[in-house]
Specification:
Chain A is an all-alpha fold. Chain A has ten helices and no strands. In chain A, helix 3 runs parallel beside helix 7, helix 6 runs antiparallel to helix 7 and helix 7 crosses helix 8. The chains are: A mainly alpha, B alpha/beta. Chain B: Keywords: ATP-binding, Nucleotide-binding, Transport.
Chain lengths: ~260, ~290
């Protein structure tokens, strides 16, 4: 336990500045989302679709999405450890590759938990302040799905980046592999688009809207579903395992 | 725990790179000894140290640290050794206190009081960021960390390079204190031979990835000598006795491998004792034989 405390302390201290910056950005965005709600109480309330109250799910979605991206994103520690020489030094320190990988994962989970709780707190404030109960518990499921979805998407990129960092011998190779990974990801999305039901390019949305109302409703149903939560949770667990394995491999890999 | 004879045993270690090979090197460091590891830049000192610390994998050979296999028993070894690199591997944002917090969880035998004693002795600020430290302060901090967990083997890679003589002397003095209980050993790579002449019990000389000399420093220095003679006298000197010859306007200086026998064989020549610097210089030029 003492060992993990030391390892996590080091990682949290090193990512402190980045964390504070992300926190400020997150708080600014979340407060910005609150402004219309506050204005409703000060000025004459607007009824119907124009009412800021109707925008609460959108606000919650944006806050959860931002929080998820910030929590799951690469914290730059690997790169910093290489440039400071700590990566090489870590080979002669007692913590094993597995223990170091677990501490990397625990640090990431700390951030995920923190931003998750913060997103939840803002959702609570939005709904409580506006006495909003249109969705009930569904709004929390909706927020959790968006939050975890964003975390998973960014974690996937982080895992890919970690593998690229591991196998690139120099900066040029790092750039080359990154470009190839980017092109590869684009290709994968293109292939997915060829499946029936995915490619909607030929079907224009009504009233020149970017997304049809039918698609929005379908998307909303998916986001508010408990089944989606279970699926995303499963993906999240798999990604945590993959992240641990990537870190383990990275800490175990010796210099050439 | 301490039932080993040699703190380091390296047998037939080979590590191949593009354009450089650490070629079948072998040497031992008995428990309680300071081994000076000398050689010019690019000779293979750092590769040897990285190999024995398992920072890099070796192609062939066997390495034992504290009587344990350097790969199989890696975890047990790491708790009992300390390493000092030529550059401080700590992040600039930390201070001396932070480093204590980081290391106390990592080393079971970490001694915070001992660490603070070193910090005070080195007059290092506790709360100043490492990024604002001078090179000497950084090296002192690294040494304080290395000496505060009761390590049995201290490995240093060019640790005194770039430090002023006062700081170097202070650090060497601490190493001597550290060795006093006879249970600890030091491997110190450096090309500042004067430091090693002061403190090393043994010396290993590496050049172009090959070990040229290894043994007790005093014996090696005593064995070798610099024979001074005229250029015309060179023909009379047995080639087997010669390491290499340094010529100048006044004559030649020959490094001989056996000073005692050379003083009997070449009675009319003066033979001076050799220093570690001389040994390095003459052995590095062993292939060209004559140089100036």
């Amino acid at each position: 336990m003492k060992l993990y405390r030391s390892l996590i302390y080091r990682e949290l201290m090193l990512t402190r500045k980045r964390f504070i910056l992300m926190l400020i950005l997150f708080l600014l965005l979340a407060l910005l989302m609150m402004t219309p709600l506050i204005l409703v109480f000060i000025f004459k309330p607007v009824e119907g679709e124009e009412s800021p109250l109707e925008m609460i799910p959108l606000f919650v979605g944006i806050v959860a999405l931002t929080g998820g991206f910030m929590a799951g994103t690469n914290n730059g520690l690997q790169k910093a450890d290489i440039s400071s020489g700590w990566k090489r030094y870590s080979f002669v320190l007692p913590p094993t590759a597995k223990q170091q990988a677990l501490s990397d994962l625990l640090t990431k989970l700390c951030y995920i938990l923190f931003f998750g709780l913060l997103s939840w707190a803002f959702e609570f404030v939005y709904t409580a302040a506006a006495d909003y109960s249109n969705f009930g518990i569904m709004l929390y499921i909706y927020m959790l799905n968006i939050y975890l979805g964003a975390v998973c998407a960014v974690m996937l990129v982080d895992i890919a980046y970690s593998y690229i960092m591991m196998y690139a011998k120099d900066k040029n190779q790092l750039k080359l592999i990154s470009v190839l990974a980017f092109v590869g990801a684009g290709f994968v999305f293109r292939v997915f688009g060829l499946f029936p039901g995915m490619n909607k390019a030929g079907k224009p949305a009504e009233d020149d809207a970017m997304i049809s109302e039918e698609a929005v409703n379908k998307f909303e149903t998916i986001l508010c579903s408990g089944k989606t939560t279970l699926c995303i949770l499963a993906v999240f667990v798999v990604l945590c395992v993959l992240f641990f394995l990537a870190m383990w491999r990275s800490h175990e890999r010796r210099e050439p | 725990m301490n039932d080993y004879e040699n703190a380091v045993e390296i047998k037939g270690v080979t590590k191949k790179y593009d354009g450089f090979t650490l070629d079948n090197i072998s040497f031992d460091i008995p428990k309680g000894c300071i081994m000076g590891f000398i050689g010019q830049n690019g000779a293979g000192k750092t590769t040897t140290i990285r190999s024995l610390l398992h920072i890099t994998d070796i192609n062939d050979g066997e390495i034992k640290l504290l009587g344990l296999d350097h790969i199989k028993d890696e975890n047990a070894i790491k708790k009992r050794i300390a390493v000092v690199f030529d550059e401080l591997p700590f992040h600039d944002v930390f201070n001396a206190k932070d480093m204590a917090k980081i290391f106390e969880g990592m080393y079971p035998e970490w001694d915070n009081d001992e660490y603070m004693k070193y910090i005070e002795r080195f007059q290092l600020p506790q709360k100043k960021k490492i990024g604002q430290f001078s090179k000497g302060m950084k090296m002192k901090l690294q040494i304080a960390c290395a000496l505060s967990h009761n390590a049995e083997l201290l490995v240093m890679d060019e640790a005194t390079t770039g430090l002023d003589p006062v700081v170097r002397d202070e650090i060497l003095h601490i190493f001597m204190e550290y060795l006093q209980n006879g249970e600890r050993s030091i491997l110190m790579s450096s090309h500042i031979t004067s430091d090693l002449e002061k403190i090393a019990d043994m010396v290993t000389f590496i050049d172009k990835g090959k070990i040229l000399l290894t043994g007790y420093k005093d014996e090696i220095i005593e064995q070798h000598g610099i024979l001074k003679c005229g250029k015309d006298k060179l023909k009379e000197i047995d080639t087997e006795d010669i390491v290499s010859i340094r010529t100048n306007n006044f004559g030649a200086e020959v490094m001989v491998t056996n000073r005692e026998s050379a003083s009997c064989k070449y009675r009319d020549c003066v033979i001076d004792p050799a220093s570690l610097d001389d040994l390095m210089l003459y052995y590095v030029h062993r292939d060209v034989k004559e140089w100036s």
